[in-house]
Amino acid sequence: MLPVIKGKDLVIFLETLGFTIIRQKGSHVRMKSDDGRYTTVPVHSGEEIPKGLLRKIIREDLEMELDEFAEAYSKFKGK
Q: What is the pTM of this model?
């Protein structure tokens, strides 16, 4: 089961995974990892990332399995 995540929280979580912000245009934050993966996260105040978009970011951009992401995120939230 995928967690419900706000854009701002996802950006912070991705930074713990080694992603850095390379630019922001409006409400979209572009991030890059050391190994060359890129993703764009919509950061609309108070809004959660839609499930379909979150699934796309996890599978295609982060190249992670959904359960692998959910486990890592739950550990992150437990901090």
A: 0.93
Token pair 């996890």 is at which residue?
58
Domain 7-77 carries which CATH code? 3.30.920.30
Query: CA-based Rg of the chain, rounded to a whole angstrom?
Result: 12
* CA–CA distance, 57 with 41 (Å, rounded to integer): 8
In sequence order, what DSSP letters do the residues of the chain get, joined into one string? -PPP-BHHHHHHHHHHTTEEEEEEETTEEEEEETTS-EEEEE--TTPBPPHHHHHHIIIIIS---HHHHHHHHHHHHT-
Distance between CA atoms of 45 and 78, rounded to whole angstroms?
23
> How many Cα atoms within 13 Å fall on the side-chain side of residue 21?
14
Note the pLDDT tens digit of each residue in 25-70. Answer: 999 999 999 999 999 999 999 899 999 999 999 999 999 999 999 9
